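Problem 12. The chain below contains 267 residues. Write out its predicted structure in C-alpha cell notation.
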Amino acid sequence: MNVTVMSRKNAIAYCKQKNPEDSVMISISDPRLAYMDEPFRSDENKVTDILRLCFADADGAGLDVYGNSVEESDLMTDEDARMVAEFVNRHQDVYILVHCDAGISRSAGVAAAILKHYTGDDRQIFKSSRHYPNMWCYRKTLNALHDLFPQEDDSRQERGNLLSNQQYQRLSELRKRVADAISKTEYEDKCKNQLEGSLELSCVFPAIAADATGTAPANEWEIQLVCHFDPERPFMSWYGRTVEEALSDCERDVEELIGRMEAARKG
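Solution.
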C-alpha cells in the first residue's frame, strides 16, 4: 500500500500538476482557519476522489497546536474515523495522499493507522523526523479500521486490549500531570516543545525526574508508557499484563514520582 503524508500547500501543488498515476486524497482542515485554496480533482492531476474532513489538531481536550481551547467534540470523531476507514477500504489499491495543514500531526496519525492496519508496519511514519503523529487520530482511525474491516490475522486477544475512550482519557490526564510537573522545574524553557504537546515527553521526563529527586524513576518503562503511548504496540498488553493493569501501575508510579519531585523542590 502506497500512502503519503503532505502539507496542505504541497497537496494543492500536487493538484495543480500533471501526475502519472491515479490517486485519492484525505483532506483535513482546521475548523478555526480560513483557506484560500482547496485540493481539487481534475483529469490532469488524476486525483479521482477526495474525502474532506475538519477537526482540531490536539490529542485530547485542552489546547490545540495553535493555543486554542478545544473540547473532545472538536477533535476527530468516531464518524470521521468511520469515513476514513470506508474511504480507504474502497481505494486501498490506489495511491493514497493524506494532508492536514502542516503535514506533521493529524495527517501523520491517520496515515500511520492506515499503514498499521493494512501492512502491519507504520514505522515509515513513526520513525520519520518530519512527523509527530497525533495519537488521538491514530487510535480513532485504527479502531475504526479494525472494527469495520478486520484483517484475517487480527488477534482477538490483542483486539480486546485496545484502549477504551476512558482509558485513553486517563493516559491524557497523566501526560498533563507530567507536563505540569516539568513546568515547575528549571527545565520548562528547555522542554517548551514537549510541554506544548509533543509525544517526546518520554525522552525527557525520566531524566528530569531523576535530576530533581536525585534518584531514577522507580519504573522508567511505565513512565514512558504514560508519556509516549507506544505506537508500535498500540493494542497489545505490556509485559503480559492487560492495558488496565499497566495503566493502573502508571497512575501509581507517576503520582509517586511527582510527589517526590515536589518534595525535593520544596526541600
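Discussion. Residues 243-266 form the longest helix (24 residues). Students who got a different answer should revisit the alignment rule from Section 12.3.
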